[in-house]
Amino acid sequence: MANRQVTPNFPEQIKESRKKIRDSFKRSHEALQVRENILLSRVDEIEKEYNSKTQEMNKLVEALNKEMKQCEENLSDNKLTDVTEIVRTAIDEKIRELIADTDTSIEFEWDNLFETGIEQLGSIKLNGETMISPTIIFPPHVKPVVPDYKTKQLPTAYCCKKSSEQKSPGELNYACGIAIHYKTGNIYVTDTDNHRVQVFSCNGDYLFLFSEEMNGPVGICISHNKVFVTQLSGHCINMYELEGKLIKSVGSEGNRRAQFNYPLGLDVSDRNNNFYVCEEGNERIQILSKEFNYVCMLGIGTFASPRDVKVTRDRVLVLDGSDPCMFVFNSDHVLTNRLITRGDGKQTRNSFCFDIDREYNIVMSDYRNHCVYVFNQEGEQIHKFGKEGQGIGEFYRPFGIA
């Protein structure tokens, strides 16, 4: 008897497969709907929590502003700096406490300098959006010194007077830069908020001043009996005779060659007489020839806030203030090192100026700790001198150093 072939029932199999697919799709769809509802519920909770925290922080900001205003009205000038630190700490601690259990990101930017007569506390950014930029009045008074850090003696010191105008010769208002003429020993100081340079003898006696075409002078250096000064607000560099006569000015505001954006520190190379200029606004070092012609750029994409620069025979050192460190380049402008200087075991974050001594040590002022640190070429601390005050051997927010 011949074998019978069983014909598969394809329509039934297809029907069953379709049913299984529909059932699987339905279960998946239901699961996704449940997940969506859970996520939407969580979003609502997060939004409510965020709004609640925002209201609390706004109330905190309002209360702090009232406290700061009261402090400005009631406290004496010499106590306002302490108030600044107290308010900063209060803002930091309270807001971090409020956002501790959330995914909110927060950023504090305290160091905004060169505001005329005012020191800004800085800004607070919540999830990238600036919320507050509180200010507090700060009466600047500066005391330049000529120290011998090896013996920790300060044989020469003088204090400027505080006043609302500070226009008299010998009075300073934000003395940011300092340079010493090696032959005469005269001290040239950029009197930033008075828009002038004042000159003192090595004993601290006032000699003379000059102010031709000054607009926020900050950085200063002396080379070949000429004085070179960066103009922070003027976005240029001026060249003067030692007696203060303007020879020429170069630069304008911008980011092209031989243009500047908030120039700060500068130095001259003894090897080729080229000028190295820190531009905080353009985040670069611009190098000019002795005739003030453009040569090249240094550190494009490397710096965030270059503040000061020093040039030795074989190195170029740049102090960057955003993530405080010292960038080291060789004579061919190749980056060779990135030093993290640590004063008293902590990373130095409060320095705007430095210099190099004859042994190639780094001498750095610390304006918040009211002292001067000395580091070796590897960034290790070897000396420290100074403390807060107005007496011999004491500082108050030191900036320039030479």
List its traits.
29 strands, single chain, 402 residues, four-stranded antiparallel beta sheet, elongated, 2 helices
Structure report:
By secondary structure, the protein is α+β, with helices and mostly antiparallel strands. It starts with 9 loop residues before the first helix and ends in a 17-residue tail after the last strand. The model is unreliable at 76-81 and 109-164 (pLDDT under 50). The protein has a four-stranded antiparallel sheet with strand order 8-9-10-11, with no helix packed on it. A four-stranded antiparallel sheet has the order 12-13-14-15, with no helix packed on it. It has helices at residues 10-74, 80-98; strands spanning 106-109, 118-120, 123-126, 129-132, 135-137, 145-148, 153-157, 175-180, 187-191, 196-200, 206-210, 217-223, 226-231, 236-241, 246-250, 263-268, 275-279, 284-288, 294-298, 306-311, 315-320, 325-330, 335-339, 342-343, 346-347, 354-356, 362-366, 371-375, 381-385. A hairpin with a 4-residue loop joins strand 21 (315-320) and strand 22 (325-330). Helix 1 packs antiparallel against helix 2 (80-98). The longest helix has 65 residues, at 10-74. It has two helices and 29 strands.
